[in-house]
Amino acid sequence: SFRTECFVGFGRQLGAPVIGIVSTKFQDWLYEFFGNPLNPSYMTGVLSKFSRPMTFWQRLQNTLLIKNTIATVKAYSKEQIAIANKYFDHHIADLKELYDGVAMVLVNEHASISDVRPTTPDIVPIGGLHVDHNDEPLSE
Fold first, then answer.
1. Contacts of 123 (CB under 8 A, 6+ apart)
2. Rounded Cα–Cα distance for residues 59 and 41 (Å)
3. b/e map of 70-106 (b: 16 or more CB within 10 Å)?
4. CA angle 28, 32, 33 (to 5 degrees)
5. Domain membership flag for residue 16
6. Which of 33, 37, 58, 69 could connect to 54 by a Cys-Cys bridge, CB 3.0–4.6 Å?
């Protein structure tokens, strides 16, 4: 994802389902769009340096960091939405409406190396997945 919502608009324009790929932990600003709970009192933000368990002050800093990150993303997204509305046939009101067309998101995290987080079924953790780079031809 890394703030590349412009590509999500192409799926909507073409009427094709979109499968997102996030090469990091699931990003804080995406939780709301997929109906996932985000509780900064025990869930560290993607930009946070804290680990669990957090002290009260770390939880407070984590909460402020997450809220600030989400507000910043929403502020920058207004211009992206305006550009998408200019070039695509459909009107998009906000990022939530844009992400409604995403069928699934593959996320580079796994419970064995990341925090355990509640997620909806459309968020699929694939941390540890490797691609073999051999050049052997496929069998017939």
1. 26, 34, 36, 104, 105, 107
2. 5
3. beebeeebeebbeebeeeeeeebeebeebbebbeebe
4. 105
5. yes
6. 58
Backbone φ and ψ of 19, nearest 5°: -115, 120
d(CA 54, CA 65): 14
Question: Phi/psi of residue 125, each to 5°?
Answer: -75, 130
| 95: containing domain | 5-125
Residue 140 lies in a domain: no
Residue 33 lies in a domain: yes
- Look up the pTM and report it: 0.80
> Would you say residue 60 lies in a domain?
yes
Three-state DSSP state, 105: strand
**Could you read off the pLDDT of 13-50 as tens digits, one per residue?**
888 888 988 888 888 989 998 889 999 988 888 888 88
Beta bridge partners of 123: 105
Query: Residue 11 in contact with residue 101, Cβ under 8 Å?
Result: yes
Give every residue of the chain whose pLDDT is below 70, as ranges. Answer: 1-3
State the total domains in the chain: 1
